[in-house]
């Protein structure tokens, strides 16, 4: 599944990149860097995490119609657990998220609406706490609405299913989440505000929310490693964007 996702995204990127080479005057690169806070509520057990991260994106756009975006979040914080076997009551954790999007704008230039396909890897790792690695593949809408001449409102909503390499780890033992597209999925949404500082730079802030409905995870001997769960993730990020 992971190989298929990589080939799919690579093929799409190669197609749109070849178009851009035909007319480089109509393409542009952009990027952003920011900091954020994050909160995880792990359902199924009494576990929660709070921390901070650095986030960055690098992207390319052609004719205001096609874009490709690469993104990463790196950070960490503290987890708390209550009466969970093998999980410390308080433990540090590290987050490492990576994602790739390819999308097409089906609306106008001033108020774009992109239909994106994306693949994402979400990693929450802790030596003495709970570790969870989610592989995701899905689709989203991503748009913007102008607020006068120097600002805009951005929004997104998406759906993704967990892939076969999604897992939990407790006390160095790994269990894998049952793969079921209808029962193991993530719903996400975001809303943000962007204020231009110049023709090529802007300040942004974004609120991100995720609802994760995940199947139970099992060890290789078919015993359950983590129960099915409904989880919430919240992020608040702000930073600067440039062309």
Automatic annotation (TrEMBL):
- Signal peptide as annotated in the record: 1-22
Which keywords describe this protein according to UniProt? Signal
Signal as UniProt keyword: yes
According to UniProt, the name of this protein is Outer membrane protein
According to its UniProt entry, this protein's organism is Helicobacter cinaedi
């Amino acid at each position: 599944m992971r190989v298929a996702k990589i080939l799919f995204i690579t093929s799409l990127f190669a197609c749109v990149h070849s178009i851009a080479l035909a007319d480089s005057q109509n393409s542009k690169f952009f990027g952003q860097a920011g900091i954020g806070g994050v909160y995880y509520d792990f359902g199924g057990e009494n576990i929660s995490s709070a921390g901070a991260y650095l986030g960055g994106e690098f992207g390319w756009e052609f004719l205001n119609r096609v874009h490709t975006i690469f993104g990463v979040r790196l950070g960490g914080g503290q987890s708390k657990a209550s009466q969970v076997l093998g999980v410390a009551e308080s433990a540090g954790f590290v987050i490492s998220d990576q994602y790739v999007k390819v999308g097409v704008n089906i609306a106008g230039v001033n108020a774009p609406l992109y239909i994106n396909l994306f693949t994402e890897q979400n990693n929450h790792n802790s030596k003495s706490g709970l570790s969870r690695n989610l592989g995701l593949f899905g689709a989203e809408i991503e748009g913007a609405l102008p607020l006068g001449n120097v600002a805009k409102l951005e929004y997104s909503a998406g759906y993704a299913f967990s892939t076969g390499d999604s897992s939990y780890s407790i006390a160095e033992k790994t269990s894998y989440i049952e793969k079921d597209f209808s029962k193991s999925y993530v719903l996400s949404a975001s809303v943000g505000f962007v204020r231009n500082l110049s023709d090529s730079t802007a300040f942004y802030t974004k609120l991100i929310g995720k609802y994760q409905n995940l199947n139970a995870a099992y060890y290789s001997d078919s015993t359950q490693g983590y129960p099915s769960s409904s989880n919430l993730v919240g992020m608040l990020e702000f930073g600067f964007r440039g062309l």
